[in-house]
Amino acid sequence: MSKVPAADSTLRILEHLAHQRGPVPAQSIATALELPRSSVYQILTVLTERGFALHIPEERRYGLGPAAFELSSAYTRQQPLTRLGAPLLAKLVDHIGESAHLAVLHGTDVLYVVEERAPRRPSLVTDVGVRLPAHLTASGRALLSALPPAQLRALYPDSIVFTQRAGVANTGPRTYRELKALVSEAASQGYSIERGEITEGLASVGVVVKDHIGWPAAGIAVTFSAAGLTSPEALNDRINSLLPEMTATAHELSRRIHGAG
User: Fold this and answer.
1) How many CB atoms lie within 10 A of CB 18?
2) Taking the model in full, what pTM does it have?
3) Are 126 and 39 within one domain?
4) What is the pLDDT of residues 22-63, one digit of tens each?
5) Distance from C-alpha of 26 to C-alpha of 37, rounded to nearest angstrom
């Protein structure tokens, strides 16, 4: 039980509104959250007055207001995920001796927000601010593996979305069915793999960082040379040597952002 029930109820209502496809009636909020209807109306009135909620009187529904958007914009400006993730990735790279990066999902792309390069390792196309197709990258596949099926399908409605990297032999998934198989495997095993779909001769393994409601907040990937890893067993051995440190890093970042890790 929260020591500040009014604050707890207010935040629960905001979280509930954030997960709806559109504005909803106050009664459905009260029912879903098992809160007194009178309390929900009182909180919604304050949220509406402060701009965190919008009331649509013709529909008798409530949705998120512009002040809620300002909060998300402020989160982006302050870059807390970058600030929290950078020292953890630096420690990870120091321990494993391979380059690592932290990425977030932007539509069907991943945006790299932290890049930590290991000494004497191959140069990478990834860097802070670079975007790459999520379905081709290890971090992107890790993020996609944590999305609800309906959200994944909405992101990839047809084959035109499946862009490919020019000049690489391994082109990656070209259909939703192929992508679904990849992300289902990643969800089942707890990590994703990419080999040669971004850069020939390099492979990556990715794990997801989840927030407090289990939503994919970021993906952590480590990239390494695949030269000499000619058999599936050799590749698996290399991945298994990296996963304990990677998983621990993802759990710690999740904890730091009050996530599910």
Assistant:
1) 13
2) 0.73
3) no
4) 899 999 999 999 999 999 999 999 999 998 999 998 889 999
5) 8
